[in-house]
Amino acid sequence: MITYSAQVATDDAYELAEGPVWDPARGRVLWVDIPQGRVVEAALSGDWLEVTGGHRFPGTVGAVVPTRDAGLLVATGKGFATVVSDGCVRTGPTVVPGDLDSRFNDGACDPAGRFLVGSMALDDREAGERLYRLDPDGSVGVVDEGLTLSNGLGWSPDGGTLYHIDSVTGTVWARAYDPDSGAVGPRSALLRVEDGAPDGLCVDVEGNLWIAIWGAGQVRCLSPEADLIATVEVPAPHTSSAAFVGPGRDRLLVTTARKDLSDADLAAFPASGRLFLADVGTAGVPTTPWAGDSTSFP
Questions:
Q1: I want to staple 38 with a disulfide (CB 3.0 to 4.6 A). Which of 33, 115, 215, 221 is the partner?
Q2: Apex CA 185: angle with CA 189 and CA 123, to 5°?
Q3: What pLDDT shows up at residue 298?
């Protein structure tokens, strides 16, 4: 097994940085700070991320992706919003039921530009959350149910397999996926993690999964058959997600969190909450923007 080390790449530390994504059309990196309701935009300059802009929303934000017209699509606490290229924010539909103590969490676009995003329970309820799909025309469907903390999403290089995490059960699910129609097959457990919680994930061009393990300070690379290939060591215990960024999609970017760490933890791991970069000798699958327009919502 190969071991890599990740290096600090941001000045600022975030409460819960999540959902990094590379926007190739505008050469920028995007991520969110969930509890702060913040979307961050940055430029990759060598081994460093220079923050160039951002947006704040009331409440939480779960995920952000670019849109086909150079705007942003944001999963807010219970619904959607877009940011037009001029900075104007448009509010979309509310999706997560208002009577549930739940919010949107991680999301990603499939190879055809549909946006999949899951919800998570904020109370002790189990198996009551869903994975939703926002189509380019603004319609919303349900992809999966029976989840507790819907998390990382990724597709195999040919788009034929969807990987999806439920962090509470520690399960990485795999299922057949039709990129043309968005149809999914039944899910099966690819992996169950017991020494930490699987969180965000990304997939490389060889089909391997790179999974952030919350509580372990690691990103683990596993084959499509769930064999452990490599580990990226991160000097922050709460690794939350990973993405391949840069023009060649060949830099592994890792987000981390300060949330839920004690004073002793923060003293031992002072870089917690910052973002990190690692060179791992491979590249990620291409990023697809949401195929809708940022002006789709009123």
A1: 33
A2: 55
A3: 81
pLDDT at 162: 98
What are the φ/ψ torsions at residue 113 (nearest 5 degrees)? 90, 15
Domain extents in the chain: 2-278
Mean pLDDT of 218-228: 98
- Is 11 one of the annotated active-site residues of the chain? no
Nearest 5°: CA angle at 199, between 142 and 267?
145
> Does the structure show a pLDDT above 90 at 237?
yes
**Closest by alpha carbon to 244, among 204, 288, 275?**
204
Question: Candidates 1.10.10.10, 3.30.70.20, 3.30.420.10, 2.120.10.30; correct CATH number of 2-278?
Answer: 2.120.10.30
Q: Give the up-direction half-sphere exposure of residue 173: CA atoms within 13 A in the CB hemisphere.
A: 25
d(CA 247, CA 191): 31
Percent of the chain with pLDDT over 90: 99
Cα distances from 4 to residues 22, 52, 221, 238, 280, in angstroms, run 21, 28, 11, 17, 7
CA angle 30, 33, 38 (to 5 degrees): 80
Q: Locate 76 and state its tokens.
A: 């807010």
Catalytic residue among 106, 144, 166, 199: 199
pLDDT (average), residues 111-126: 98
Beta bridge partners of 212: 219
60-76 tens-digit pLDDT: 999 999 999 999 999 99
pTM: 0.98
Q: The tokens of 252 are what?
A: 């592994």
The sheet carrying 115-121 orders its strands as 102-109, 115-121, 129-134, 140-147
Distance CA 128, CA 120 (A): 9
Tokens 């970069």 correspond to what residue?
277
